[in-house]
Design brief:
This protein is an all-beta fold. 0% of the residues lie in helices and 52% in strands. The protein has strands spanning 2-7, 10-13, 18-26, 33-39, 46-51, 58-60, 68-73, 78-83, 92-99, 109-110, 114-119. The strands form 2 sheets. Strands 2, 4, 5, 6, 9, 10 and 11 form a 7-stranded mixed β-sheet that branches. Strand 5 (46-51) and strand 6 (58-60) form a beta hairpin. The model has no long low-confidence stretch (mean pLDDT 94).
């Protein structure tokens, strides 16, 4: 089992930045691919970004490409999502997730989520 805890959410004005963190505990001796997802009110959860277990491969949704950066620190067992040039449409609950392998789906472990609100 892997436990994931997100932090770093909050309220920010449009154009601002936030950095989300996701700390992993439990069976972290095995390296996992990590992802960030988000869910806005009344919408389905959507993929935001993913990073391979070594950190060498990343993938982004078109809506965040060029503005968000995913990274991971395997020593600290933490994955980050740096979010710049935030827009009101980025408002959502952001979740991190872990899986063996790498990809946009089939994640096994999920955090509880952190709220990001972008005001116009």
């Amino acid at each position: 089992q892997v436990q994931l805890v997100e932090s770093g959410g909050g309220l920010v004005q449009a154009g601002g930045s936030l950095r989300l963190s996701c700390a992993a505990s439990g069976r972290t001796g095995r390296r996992y691919g990590m992802g960030w997802f988000r869910q806005a009110p009344g919408k389905e959860r959507e993929f935001v970004a993913a990073i391979s277990r070594t950190g060498g491969i990343t993938d982004y949704a078109d809506s965040v490409k060029g503005r968000f950066t995913i990274s991971k620190d395997n020593v600290k067992n933490t994955v980050y999502l740096q979010m710049n040039s935030l827009k009101p449409e980025d408002t959502a609950v952001y979740y991190c997730a872990a899986r063996s392998g790498y990809g946009r789906g089939a994640y096994d472990y999920w955090g509880q989520g952190t709220q990001v609100t972008v005001s116009s």
